[in-house]
């Protein structure tokens, strides 16, 4: 399948689910699935710029993942530290800007330092923004943004809150993909998902590849995004709309 020609730059977000099942099917420890998941992520990062994708946001560790067995949590921290050490020089060469979204306070010093160094090393890159949500939760994002606005005495509006969220530098995702045959958001980008197109695949994350990405992009290209308008209004760009009423 060839990649579709996209009319606009695209922001894709992915819930990379199914690493554990991929490993269990092979009688391997779950952490082997997460390691394979990093290789898949590398492939997908590489595949984004030629397809017109300018931002990729991935869910690598949720606020709730601390509830997993200790060895899996430690393993995921180690994988992150190792992936940063190994991959940042390549990301730098490929023009990828990496950013980490999530609560850093309860991460180890080693991990925190890794995140800061990776961000600093890639800050001026522009071919793709890669947002890695690590120790991230959509509710945490909204609650902490609201708390900062309240502490500053700023009025909480859709605009002020939106500007305070972790993903404000990229805007909302156009397409959210979830692998692993589960159909839920699991506290990922709750605010920003408002108008995203959702795409679910049975493929486990380590089995996801460029052709699976193309299948998602083809499906996305066939969808009509209406943002509250009627199909006719969307088809006729010149159609008049009423000024939005002020809320009463
Ligand atoms: C969900 O699969 C996946 C995760 C909780 C971790 C995702 C992490 C990676 C893809 C690699 C890490 C990447 C970085 C940058 C650190 P699951 O474990 O819930 O799978 P299951 O549903 O089959 O059990």
Description:
- Helix 1 crosses helix 2, helix 2 runs parallel beside helix 3 and helix 5 packs across helix 6.
- The protein is built from 8 helices and 6 strands.
- Helices cover 42% and strands 16% of the residues.
- It has a 6-stranded parallel beta sheet, with helices on both faces.
- The chain is of the alpha/beta class and 248 residues long.
- The protein is globular, with a radius of gyration of 19 Å.
- Helix 4 links the parallel strand 3 and strand 4.
- It has a single domain, classed as Decaprenyl diphosphate synthase-like (Undecaprenyl pyrophosphate synthetase, 3-Layer(aba) Sandwich), CATH 3.40.1180.10.
- Farnesyl diphosphate (FPP) binds next to helix 1, helix 2 and helix 3.
Question: What would you call the shape?
Answer: globular
User: Ranges with pLDDT <50 over ≥5 residues?
Assistant: 243-248
Fraction of residues in β-strands = 15-25%
What structural class do helix, strand and pairing data support? alpha/beta
Attached small molecules: farnesyl diphosphate
What is the mean pLDDT?
92
Question: What's the quick description here?
Answer:
With about 250 residues, this protein is an alpha/beta fold.
Q: What's the helix and strand layout?
A:
Layout: E1 10-15, H1 19-25, H2 30-47, E2 53-62, H3 70-94, E3 96-101, H4 109-122, E4 128-136, H5 138-152, H6 158-164, E5 175-178, E6 197-200, H7 210-222, H8 231-235
Parallel strand pairs: 1-2, 1-5, 2-4, 3-4, 5-6
Helix pairs in contact: 1-2, 2-3, 3-4, 5-6
The structure holds farnesyl diphosphate (FPP).
């Amino acid at each position: 399948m060839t990649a579709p020609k996209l009319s606009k730059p695209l922001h894709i977000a992915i819930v990379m689910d199914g690493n554990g099942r991929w490993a269990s099917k092979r009688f391997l420890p779950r952490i082997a699935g997460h390691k394979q998941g990093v290789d898949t992520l590398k492939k997908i990062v590489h595949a984004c710029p030629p397809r017109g994708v300018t931002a990729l946001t991935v869910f690598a560790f949720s606020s709730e993942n601390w509830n997993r067995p200790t060895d899996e949590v430690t393993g995921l921290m180690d994988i992150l530290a190792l992936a940063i050490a190994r991959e940042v020089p390549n990301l730098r060469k490929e023009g990828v800007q990496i950013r980490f979204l999530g609560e850093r306070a309860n991460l180890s010093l080693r991990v925190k330092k890794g995140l800061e160094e990776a961000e600093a090393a890639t800050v001026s890159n522009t071919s793709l923004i890669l947002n890695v949500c690590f120790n991230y939760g959509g509710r945490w994002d909204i609650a902490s943004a609201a708390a900062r606005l309240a502490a500053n005495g700023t009025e909480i509006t859709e605009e002020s809150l939106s500007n305070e969220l972790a993903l404000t530098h990229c805007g909302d995702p156009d397409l959210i993909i979830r692998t692993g045959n589960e159909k839920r958001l699991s506290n990922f980008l709750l605010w920003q998902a408002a108008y995203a197109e959702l795409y679910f695949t049975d493929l486990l994350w380590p089995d996801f590849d460029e052709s699976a990405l193309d299948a998602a992009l083809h499906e996305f290209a066939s969808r009509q995004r209406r943002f509250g308008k009627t199909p006719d209004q969307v088809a006729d760009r010149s159609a008049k709309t009423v000024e939005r009423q002020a809320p009463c």
